[in-house]
Every structure is written in C-alpha cells, then in structure tokens.
Amino acid sequence: MNVLIGCEESQVVCQSFRSLGHNAFSCDLVDTRGNPSWHIKGDVMDAIQSRYWDLIILHPDCTAMALSGNRWYGSNMPHNDKRIKSVEWTLKLWELALKRSNRVCLENPKSVIFPLLRDMGHTIQYIQPWMFGHTENKETGLCLHGLPKLKWTNDVSQLMVNMSKSETDKVHYASPSPTRKRDRSVTYQGIANAMAEQWSK
Fold first, then answer.
1. Please, what are the domains in the chain?
2. Does pLDDT of 174 surpass 90?
C-alpha cells in the first residue's frame, strides 16, 4: 500500500508499516529522526495532493485543540483565536485527505475536534496505551473513515494497579525541556504496530 503518515517526524508509525513491506512515508515541516529517504519534509497538504494514497494517518498539532488546554484556549480564554484557527485548519486537512484516500485516520489526544467530526457522521474511537502493551495512561482519540476500530492487542492494565502516577502518567508528568512537546507526541510502539497489522488487512 501507499501510506502517508502526516505530521509525523518520529517515523514510529511509518516504520511499522515499512516493516510489513508497505510504501510508507512520514511528512512534517521538520527533518525526521528516522530514515530521511522515507520522509517528505514540507506541507502535509501538498503531500496529500501529490498522489492517491491507499491509507492516510494524520497527527495534527494538538496544542490548541486538546481539552487539557481549555484554560488557555477555551471559550473567552486569552488564546481562543488560536483554537479556532487550529480547528479550521484541521477540518480542512481532514476533508482534503478524504478526497485523496478511501481510508483515513486522524489521531489526537481528547480534543475539541472529535465532537465536530462525530457530528459530521464519522466514527470516533478512544484508546489507551495499556490496551497495547504499555503500562501508561494517555487517552487518545481516533477519527476513522473506511477503517475498522483498533482491537486491543495486549491489556496490561492489571500491571498498573500498584504503580505510581509518575510511572503510569509519564506524559502528563514529563519534565520541562526543549523537546518535551515533541517527545510527548510520539505514538506508542504498540499502537503503531496495531495500526500497521490490523489496517494492512
């Protein structure tokens, strides 16, 4: 399959599809930490329009749209205009992807974008890393078009019972650093593998 992973520089998802023999590419405005031969550095909308894709997976920036940022980006908050612009751009990105592929996924943390997409008739699924072998919490939403919901592959929730919050909520408690935003956005390997294995079928 020709697969585009939009707004991904880590190449975690891209490499999962590559490992199964697919012609997969990541795309971002910055250089990849992975193999540059499989990376399109540039505007994701241009990449989407460059060919027909068998599958497109999108990871748009969640900073302004995530519910965790309501105190800054919510209604009547100082940066609400940035949320409005982010939502408008993401909806435009989604609609463009639907024109270039019959199978599209948009991934984000719990976000204001999902109620809007659900109201448009699209399927929404929420998943956790512990459903796919990672002893961590990070509720993530998937908007799916032409794709089945992901099936759990390795439920490790029982292993988390006696773990501390700092262990199970590493993303939330991540220390400030120049790469904090980048590192928090990386897809868990178990989820990436599930996408590649299940959506290849």
1. 2-199 (3.40.50.150)
2. no
